[in-house]
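Box S2. Input/output pair 1.
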Amino acid sequence: MTNFAFIMLAGGSGTRVGWDIPKQFIRIAGKTLLEHSMDCLVSAYPDKKIIVVAPADLIDMTRALIEPYPLAEAVIGGSTRQGSTLAALKHLEHDPPHNIVIHEAARPFLSRTVLHDVVHALEHYEAVDVAIPASDTIIVENEGIIQSIPRRDKIWRGQTPQAFRFRTLMDAYNAFTSDRLEKDFTDDCGVVLAANPFVKIKIVRGTSDNIKITEETDLVIADEFFRLKANAIDPNIKGVNLKGKSAVIFGGSAGIGRAIEQVLNDAGCTTTIGSRSLGYDITRYDHVERLLGSAIEQAGKIDFVINTAGHLSRKNLEDFDPAEMEAEISVNFTGALNIAKAAKPHLKKSKGMLLNFSSSSYTRGRGGYVPYSASKAAIVNMTQGLAEEWMDDHIRVNCIVPGRTDTEMRRSNFYNEDQSKLLSPFEVALTAAKILDGPNSGMIVRI
């Protein structure tokens, strides 16, 4: 493979997404956008150097984030994209690679296939760009009036990565003053083409999901993309090894919880189960602590805490009396908070995982069981929040959102349902085992 290095541009301000930190440091699915984008590069080329260009006031934060990537180093960028690229090029100039591949930290969904295509194309061209055909009509404007409408079949939308012979890009940057670089260009292919109009820049076709996080709505789309990726988990127990691990399962005496116990035991994991029928009420903090203490006595540690407990009453809100409403929310949400709070010290010691369960009704409140739907939406937000709070303690927090599953609770609330169309609790349990054996945090996994 030709000698090359990566430049990761992480110097944007992020003001358009409405946050008080640059967008590359916003956390989605348990990691910052910068880390997700770094993973895209490292998963494909783990032996390549990565120069991460960051704002001066955030250079220490950047260095802390990239510490797990042994071949990555952070440098201070300029006030513009071109200034940041130039800072990285000058940093590399003392020992320049043959080729350079530039990616943006705000694009966390780069396909490995596209990245390979870019690297291979660079063996035959001096410069390579990634783009996709434009789906909208493009209008050229002049003082508020349409000047022209180019043929759409000739218009493509640029993405990253872009790749270059190192010397080609360095010479192009040296051909212009800093003022012109700042005013006249928006990407590096534009700089190269202006410096040498005869250079052939190869287009590698990108993908529609290689989006750039720019606006606040892009964060919503990105969050959904990460959920879709999580849903690709293969629910096959093959390869899962939980020998020597210890799990506590709340709600483990029936339904999904009971299936998880059996699957984890088959994978070599020690389990301790608790439920209201066994004398453990998760709405009571002391009961939660008692079950966790029992697990410590039995196994000496707790690697996983799994909460499958839940309660569903199907009736309109006006038909709940206040005590019933409080009980429903206490089991479905307050109990989950009790479990999380009590479990944290144990999971911090083991660097373990809290695995929550929500419901497909969290995406849209359902008439006839509003307290339940609202509580399950809260579980998703709780999972995402705790994944961020507990990251520095190396505790992973994830959530499974099963589809309609054949459990006692469902049968008692949905009569005459065709059970052949329901998930088996063991299908859900197998997915849970795969998640417990994985490295991810902040994931909302739909089944």
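Box S3. Input/output pair 2.
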Amino acid sequence: MRKYIRDRFHGILKLNDPPHKLALAAAIGVFIAFSPWLGLHIVSCIFFAWIFRVSKVVVLTATFVNNPWTMVPMYAFNLWLGVKLTGSDMVIPEISWREIGFRELFTILKPFLWPFVAGSLVAGLVAGLASYFLFFWAVTRYRKADSA
């Protein structure tokens, strides 16, 4: 599995786009991975890749930073960050899962929406910026080593 991931990463580094475009595509993908619009990541990838004229493959691949193993920690961190940024003093409510419907769940979780969105956007922006510079460095370093 590790070899497969490494080979895919090398394949992305070899794409015929300039390093800036590849790094921008990776940054957009990582930003989308942190985004609060659950269920719309793939549509967002295609849309933003089209808007910024970058590789859809790289944007989609970078979005998979958010996967079933990382989703809960990422979104928990986003909510925590959002609560800190908005100065909210929320307490996690007790939820009787057996007796709750969609309407009640929405009512209980509604106060968490703005902190979650705020934390997601700030964390996504920071992670996207960091990934831009890391990916740009990786592409230029890989291409120098490959041409030598």
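Caption for Box S3: Residues 2-147 form one domain. The chain has a mean pLDDT of 88.
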